[in-house]
Protein: AcrR family transcriptional regulator
Amino acid sequence: MAKAERGPRERMIFSAAQLIRRDGVVSTGMREVAVDAAAPRGSLQHYFPGGKAQLVDEAVGWAGGYAAGRVERFLAALPEPTPSGLFASMVRQWTDEYEADGFAGGCPVAAALVDCAEAVPSTRKAASAAFSTWTGAVAEALTEMGVPGERAGPLATLMISSLEGAILLARAERDVRALTTVARELGPVLDAAVREKGG
Amino acid sequence: MAKAERGPRERMIFSAAQLIRRDGVVSTGMREVAVDAAAPRGSLQHYFPGGKAQLVDEAVGWAGGYAAGRVERFLAALPEPTPSGLFASMVRQWTDEYEADGFAGGCPVAAALVDCAEAVPSTRKAASAAFSTWTGAVAEALTEMGVPGERAGPLATLMISSLEGAILLARAERDVRALTTVARELGPVLDAAVREKGG
DNA sequence: CCTCGACTATGACCGTGGTCATAGTAGTCT
DNA sequence: AGACTACTATGACCACGGTCATAGTCGAGG
Structure:
């Protein structure tokens, strides 16, 4: 991951997301975040007066924006954009990471949900917003590829649901099998939704 | 949920699963489990000398068996078994719960993974085994319905991945939309895998 | 009755971690 | 220089929670 050379505030949000991804929200300490971000501990209460909840919420929001940004970049990188190609790119981001760095991390939004959905209302809303941002980006990409408007939303939901679930399975099994499986199974289904253009 | 009138040990495992489902592993205290199970605190160290890890592992294992058992019961309850019907039943279990009791809980296996996958190796293995048990039951059901053997496994993985992901989305959004969407989108795909029998 | 095992009951210990309080530094504007 | 703001630095407080130690109950068997 590119180490953004931004200010300490952004570095802490980024570090929080990374640590949450690996250990979950509750097991991730504020002090730990500061150390990981090479930021002074005192900055935590300065930049995040709302405490841990605020930091977590911002980390979740960052993750949502990051995922949406990736979708756009995947789209731009595809020589011939197809829904299956986009989904394959999204999945490959995970298989690449798992094969290169091991199965240490999951999705930070999922982690925040599991740990905070019931206990911290603002975090649940942040997670909802993150998914919404992400799903919106995917749906928009599908529409640009020729998927009818009323089909783009449901298919985006299906893609992200499958991906999130496959991430869980892959992490449990320490094997990318589930990820490659959903990509292979869903690819043709997604492409079938593109309205025929050329014949 | 039927309150099993078993011994305190099983009640504690059941309670642990329920609490983990709602709050995650780390936020669920041992004392809390004992109270919820109406079991004496002293029984914790008696029945689970391996400590919290053992309790969590057994809760995850119980959840896997429970899910697999549900699959068989869904299958038996379907007048005319089809893959889409089975998947609809699996999804409906969640929509029913969410509509009746609110969006408080997620999948305990997912929760255990998020919180412990990296920190507690035995729990990661327990989660893997739980998914395996569950996936196996689904694959077997698909095979009985006429899905070719080499297709059953991948489709079972797809079903469980989508379901797990949709649970996350539904909980975030506090709306069963994602669950009903994946059921609707995947139904025809699953049924298409049944080899034609009658024409 | 005594004992032994299974189970229950509690209090103590100790690390962890979020938060708060209080200061200290550094740069800038007047 | 003085003052004001932004940021850094730390120590203390306090609650929580897993674990351990110790002891109590209670039924069965001899």
